[in-house]
Amino acid sequence: MITNSAIRSSSPIARLATEVDYMAAGGRIERDLFTEDSTETWIDPEIAQRIAGEKLQAFATEVAVSSGYAWVRPVLETRVPYSASEELHQVHLEPEPLTDDEQDEADKLLEAISALEAEGEELDYEDEVAAADFQKRWDAATGTYDALTDKPRQIPDEIRPNLGCFVVIAPDGTPVVDGGLYSDKPMQRRKAAAQPEGAGGAGETAQDNTPKPLSQKLVEELAVQRRDILAINLASNPAIALDFMIFAIADGGRGYGSQTHGTTIRAPSASNDFGS
Asked: Which residues form a coiled coil (predicted)?
């Protein structure tokens, strides 16, 4: 559970339970003249947990019906704890592939997004009209790309009877489906059935199920985006940047070249000569 003692009214459990339902069930709130709504103390956490649990269970039932999963388990947490999934086997499924036309459109959208990124570097954000127009075009391009590439995951029929998921509480108190899928039985790698020679008939060729490779331009665009995302995170979080730098320096003597570690950060070995 998120808490076993008095809880704040701003906690995910309290937000899911709601003050109205909590008070109606006999829950008590500790407050004074100087207490803000977000810092009120709910001193009957078991009531809030029971109400939140019932709401989360109802949401899990709805998800089970709509998704067709074999099981959907509610967890009164903001994320799935290890104790809830340690006996399960996480399943990684590939999304449905893009068609040739969709892939061509995705490539064009990436080109448009790259052009917008370059435009954004030169944009005067103090010009509110220009900034608003740029944001509108950026949202349209990225939204279209996300909608195009956000394909549903393909679930093989043989694992569907054992496949399930968890529902958790978002920080704002909203019940949500956790992104992971799990199986209660070990997964076995599927083997493609051998195609008998001539099975397709004279003049017919066997269907090629090999995934279409990404274009070189798309690969380069994705590499640039990954680099930019890493740079932004390192620049905005000094603690992560420091940890990464220390690790890179400490591990620098174990290989040759920057490709080994993915960074060009280097430092000379520490000296043991401190003088006499």
From this structure: 99-126
Closest listed residue to residue 1, CA positions, set 61, 60, 74: 74
Give the largest Cα separation in the chain, rounded.
89
- Residue 224, amino acid: V
Tokens standing for 273?
């000569």
What order do you get walking across the sheet with 7-8 strand by strand? Answer: 7-8, 41-42, 29-30
Q: Is the Cα dihedral 204, 206, 207, 213 positive or negative?
A: negative
152 and 95 Cβ atoms separated by less than 8 Å: yes
Of residues 116, 106, 118, the one with CA closest to residue 137: 116
The token pair that represents 173 in the structure block: 């108190």
**How does 172-195 read in b/e, with b if 16+ C-beta sit within 10 Å?**
ebebebbeebbbeeeeeeeeeeee
Centre a 10 Å sphere on the Cβ of residue 259 and count the other Cβ atoms it contains: 8
What pTM value is reported for the model?
Answer: 0.52
